[in-house]
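Escalated from tier 1: iron/sulfur cluster holo job.
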Amino acid sequence: MNERDSEQVARMFTEGGYTVTKDEFKADAILVNTCSVRDQAEQKALGKMGSMVQHRKKRPHVVYGFMGCMAQSRGQELFQNVPHLDVVVGTQKYHKVFEYVDGILQNRLERRMDDLKLTYKGDHICDIDEEKDSQNTIKDHVKETTDPTAFVSIMQGCNMKCSYCIVPDTRGRERGRPIQDIVEECESLVARGVKEVTLLGQIVNLYGRTEFPKVDGKSPFVQLLEAVHAIEGLERIRFTSPHPIGYRDDLVEAFTYLPKLCSHIHFPMQSGSDRILKLMRRPYKNEKFIEICKKMKAARPDMAITTDIIVGFPGETEEDFEETVKCVKELEFDNCFVFRYSQRRNTPAADMLDQLSEKVKEDRNQRLLAVVNEIAQRKNNALVGTVQEVLCTGPSKNNPNTLNSRTPQNKIVILEGNPDRLVGKVFKAKIHECTGFTLYGTPIIESLEEAE
Ligand code: SAH
Ligand code: SF4
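Tier 2 regenerated the structure:
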């Protein structure tokens, strides 16, 4: 989601005549989009912004800005922590970042023409207000890319109140975009060569529930999936994240008649203990979570399920933790993000008395990861010798001589071959090797010719 928001901001700068650089030493403006979900992410962003003050020495006009969740939750106080900061822009104001930064920059450059020795203090612009219809502002994409995959933000905010989570505080109430706007965005991406879209929201399956009616017993989210599915030239659809609440049979069924939906869901479980789920204010029982997973596997036998789990929530006993481990073993997730519980400001769980030590959290983290990794690697090894359909996305980051691709189950397959021929295509590949989480495959040329 943050990546998608950053892309929107980048696009506004390129439209305004700027170029995007990853080299902070060359930049005239340095913007850090921040996540607040865990404390570690905030500390990293603060550390990075602090260390970048050095650029002011050589380039005194550099504009510094924080955007996103930490900007939203800390607001003005960030100027005390980071004196060289110029701009703090919250989660409903991404569309204003360009205006603020460009304004400061032009002003500084003009003043500098008169006095070359001029130095600047932070400008201290802070905009973290609510903005009606801000969900409709995240809609443009950077033009200069050959990536055949794209993220599309379908909604903002969250109306749940999970007791550990800062998101409702930083992202506001749930607000969906109209189906037609989303479809048009997807169509324009497809016209540019995009083959796969991932629809983004905090609880995607609740998309539009307060704004749009059900039609023929189908939720607005399933209506949206059908509309996006009808786009010619689009080959794959993903979404993240769904939530057990409101995960109804119309969505399960959609996987039986919408073949472009990939056989993968990232479905956060958080805990396998009903007692902890209740303390987390997650309004479902473990049994219900398991039942949905089973229905999804019945609808699509090749369905891969990945999940998020928090370990070390306040009051989590060894028995609670063991219930989580048991459930992970039973459901055999294809992969799992394990998070150590992190105390967040203004959340009820932060004030719970029974906070666990970092040692206990780390111990459970490691034990759960060992179980998760063993299952994931066993499942990946079983794919050696099989043929998988892949979408080739571009050169691999680790070794640019090889190409990255993904199966519908979202597993990475490394390929060798001619990028001009393979990138952006969906074809079959024979898997010949597996090193834990990475699969290696060989394109099957006949299937590629069919794709052409
Ligand atoms: N809306 C999604 C989750 C968004 S946050 C959902 O409800 O499914 C992404 C993940 O961060 C969560 O699934 C959770 O596992 C983790 N997370 C959120 N708050 C956390 C906290 N305080 N400490 C540790 N992990 C947290
Ligand atoms: Fe946070 Fe819960 Fe909303 Fe997900 S559903 S964003 S975990 S409050």
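The radius of gyration is 23 Å.
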